[in-house]
Sequence to fold (237 residues):
Amino acid sequence: MTLLNVDIKSAGYDKEKEIIHNIHFNVKEGELIGLIGPNGAGKSTTIKTILGLLENKEGEISFRENTKYSYVPERPIFYDELTLWEHLDFIAAVEALPDKEYKEKAKDFLEQYKLTEHAHEYPGKYSKGMQQKAMLILAMITSPKVYIIDEPFIGLDPNAMKLFLKLIETEQKRGAGILMSTHVLDTAEKVCDRFLMIHNGQLQAAGTLKDIREQCNLPDGSLYDCFHLVAEGNPDE
Ligand SMILES: Nc1ncnc2c1ncn2[C@@H]1O[C@H](COP(=O)(O)OP(=O)(O)OP(=O)(O)O)[C@@H](O)[C@H]1O
Fold:
């Protein structure tokens, strides 16, 4: 079942300058989709367009009816005057989450991510990795049907990375669809079901690794080889 359908004809920050063109894909239940591309390719712009943050947009973005989604930005954003628990309470209040259920879930996440002892501190003062983990907890607490995650791996230590991947898998099994932009291609190759390869604001290749290899004419290539070909035009350099 399709949860999110993206049909961007063009989008950009200023009326005169379009940044992305003809980006079409969907996210289905239980799928993890990797949004891949070099710096400045248009990944964050695609995400911002999906989130409705860009006014200059031609095309259609449609979430399945009543689909709740969570966005995890590349750079964590917190309220200065709220502790992590207060952030969780705030989200629970806005989303009208059942009290007992969300508290149990929150405690479980905090324990897993080793943030229990820091839950009453201000996340603005956490280390980078702790902030990233806190953002993930805030995203997961509402049990959304769709996740939109901008580069989750930077700043996570190896244990946190493993935990994140495990939680993502659990969320997929629950039926959540995930769109995740990342530069960590070896991990993406292992965990993503499909890929969207963007360069110069356009979709250059899309599909499973097999599809991408065929489109790049690299039958045994890794995701990195295909990325390199798309980004640089030569897989061997
Ligand atoms: N706020 C902005 N205003 C104007 N142009 C922007 C803005 N943000 C990004 N751009 C431009 O849009 C283009 C695509 O940038 P975008 O941030 O989408 O790339 P990206 O693929 O997410 O890159 P990275 O891997 O470096 O995060 C770049 O040319 C960039 O200069």
